[in-house]
Design brief:
two-stranded antiparallel ribbon, alpha/beta, elongated, Alpha/beta knot, binds S-adenosylmethionine, Trp Operon Repressor, Chain A, 5-stranded parallel β-sheet
């Protein structure tokens, strides 16, 4: 799989793409990630990529020229249909595990990081395949949202996690939220690990985890419990 991230701040990505699971997945050849500096596609003398909004108002808007040129560069000779262009925007569909799973099956994803007041509408109308938000709040730019998309998708690529079961059993993939986790020591400042987890009885442990996961999901996210009122799936 390949990600191209179009941004005016490629330096934001340097550390994040070189650590942990993302780094391992890149080294293993599971994913290729390129940052593409939008300013490289500016044609003005000052490498400007934004301008004032028509009709007046605050702030600046990313102009269409450099964005079209950057995406065309990312696509190269490949047909437009073989890549998917995602714009990060607070106005998009809210990102979730299911969308991450769908994205993990794509071959080439171009992520456009907005800045300032956003991007010219003609980019959205003709270049963008999908608009994605990572939540109901406003970031200064799409870069952190792009990192959220990249990280959640890479976890789902076959072979990206050490244990193939990890992404299957965690929150949202298995339906609801994950069960509580404990590790050594068995007693810490008077707080003890539940006996069942020390019992070695794997059937009882499985049942305890299932019950705890359901209890937590019911209390925190009833919308995720199948059969419960308000479940969205
Ligand atoms: C300051 S925001 C622009 C907000 C825009 N004027 C609005 O009210 O919808 C600048 C950029 O940050 C990114 N951004 C902000 N919040 C986001 C969110 N919740 N999810 C994804 N991207 C976001 C987008 O790329 C956006 O173009």
């Amino acid at each position: 799989m390949r990600f191209d991230i179009v941004t005016v701040f490629p330096e934001i990505f340097a550390g994040a793409l070189e650590a942990g699971i993302i780094r391992r997945a890149r080294q293993a050849g599971l994913v290729e990630i390129r940052t593409v500096n939008l300013r490289d596609f500016a044609t003005s003398r000052h490498r400007s990529v934004d301008d004032r909004p028509y009709g007046g108002g605050e702030g600046m808007v990313l102009t269409p020229g450099p964005l079209f040129a950057a995406v065309e560069h990312c696509r190269g000779a490949e047909p437009a249909a073989s890549s998917s262009v995602i714009l990060l925007t607070p106005q998009g569909e809210t990102w979730n595990q299911n969308l991450a799973l769908q994205a993990s099956r794509l071959g080439h994803v171009v992520l456009i990081c907005g800045r300032y007041e956003g991007v010219d509408q003609r980019v959205i109308d003709t270049l963008v395949d999908k608009e994605i938000s990572i939540g109901d709040y406003v970031l200064s730019g799409g870069e952190f949202a792009a990192l959220v998309v990249v990280d959640t998708v890479i976890r789902l690529l076959p072979g990206a996690l050490g244990n193939a079961e990890s992404s299957v059993n965690e929150s949202f993939s298995a339906g609801g939220l994950d069960y509580p986790q404990y590790t050594r020591p068995a007693e810490f400042r008077g707080m003890v690990v539940p006996d069942v987890l020390l019992s070695g009885d794997h059937a009882r442990i499985r049942e305890w985890r299932r019950a705890k996961a359901l209890e937590k999901t019911r209390s925190r996210r009833p919308d995720l419990v199948p059969g419960d009122a308000g479940c969205v799936r």
